[in-house]
């Protein structure tokens, strides 16, 4: 027991040293990097004083700086919007199309549709609207299951002097298919395919949609129609067909498609091999996964990050972690840098098996190689909350803030729920308020849990205060 305790303390002290070293080095970088200075101000400054603090900072913004800041704060829509508005008032600065698009995505994510359309109107006045603007909006509406609004966005393009073309048509179909509304996409396709002559991309979008439904007969029907209409399948179409067959459990047929490709001009890609390796991994056919990977290399196709991630996933599935780390070493030798997805696969498997100490070691290895993403931080914080190690959960949270990473709604919720479980409603309230300040709407479950604990402690005034804060994030109505 003493040995385990000492080991844990050693890990904790190493973590604290790492955080301190990172903190001091970041302070030096912030002095010369205007983006980091702005991000630090936005992370620490109260909403009411943000404009004043930014003005006093003396930082001059450029389109590149603004785009970078908006990208970093894409989880904090209203905070990002406040910065966007401030930047727009600076001398000798004009928002780029990319800045507008980033802001539209962030606002749509938190369902601030009225402000989103205000930005669209602003872009129209400046003659900056393009097809991509409307494709972004269609994608976001579809993801929120606002199908009619997505279709409306397509139909209203003409009014905004951006006539819809095949790219916009494909954008609408893609948005619907990716949000599991393939039947609506098919209905629109059947009505409008004479207005916009479909290309291989159009058919590939529908093919993928029916594959995810899943409806293999309909997917085959789309493939046949594509060929009958004189659209030759391209490498993307073949990749989707292989994926569709694998998801339908027809792996042998998928392999036949790959072999058929070998006899044509169209050669299999690393993506296609990654699909096969991933499928074999899911089905616990580790030997087939390894053989497929080896066959790919024999065919002269260099393994990319997607194939390596599939192979790592396959080894994790059968609990062969020695092989996982061998693959990581091979990636290093091949010049392929692991990404957050690589480590998230490993972390998820280790945590699922209860190997939390090993997961923490992998996490510490990860932060020396690549940047964790929202899923990484959420997993680690949830892991420590689940072990009743709130001190460590808060250490990860602090490190995340040092990295100026804006937490997602799920990351906030995991830590708030963990604090509620511990009975620390005061800290939970502080985080909930911070969450709301950043324009991130808490789920009804998270807000309700904090509210319940506050009522139990007879702190009705705090409940009222938080409720008023929440009311400022009232969902905006959909309008033109």
TrEMBL record:
<feature type="repeat" description="PPR">
    <location>
        <begin position="339"/>
        <end position="369"/>
    </location>
</feature>
<dbReference type="Pfam" id="PF01535">
    <property type="entry name" value="PPR"/>
</dbReference>
<feature type="repeat" description="PPR">
    <location>
        <begin position="234"/>
        <end position="268"/>
    </location>
</feature>
<feature type="repeat" description="PPR">
    <location>
        <begin position="408"/>
        <end position="442"/>
    </location>
</feature>
<feature type="repeat" description="PPR">
    <location>
        <begin position="165"/>
        <end position="195"/>
    </location>
</feature>
<feature type="repeat" description="PPR">
    <location>
        <begin position="373"/>
        <end position="407"/>
    </location>
</feature>
<dbReference type="InterPro" id="IPR011990">
    <property type="entry name" value="TPR-like_helical_dom_sf"/>
</dbReference>
<feature type="repeat" description="PPR">
    <location>
        <begin position="130"/>
        <end position="164"/>
    </location>
</feature>
<dbReference type="Pfam" id="PF13041">
    <property type="entry name" value="PPR_2"/>
</dbReference>
<feature type="repeat" description="PPR">
    <location>
        <begin position="304"/>
        <end position="338"/>
    </location>
</feature>
<feature type="repeat" description="PPR">
    <location>
        <begin position="269"/>
        <end position="303"/>
    </location>
</feature>
<protein>
    <recommendedName>
        <fullName>Pentatricopeptide repeat-containing protein</fullName>
    </recommendedName>
</protein>
<comment type="similarity">
    <text>Belongs to the PPR family. P subfamily.</text>
</comment>
<dbReference type="InterPro" id="IPR051240">
    <property type="entry name" value="Mito_RNA-Proc/Resp"/>
</dbReference>
<dbReference type="GO" id="GO:0003729">
    <property type="term" value="F:mRNA binding"/>
</dbReference>
<dbReference type="Pfam" id="PF12854">
    <property type="entry name" value="PPR_1"/>
</dbReference>
<dbReference type="InterPro" id="IPR002885">
    <property type="entry name" value="PPR_rpt"/>
</dbReference>
<keyword id="KW-0677">Repeat</keyword>
<feature type="repeat" description="PPR">
    <location>
        <begin position="199"/>
        <end position="233"/>
    </location>
</feature>
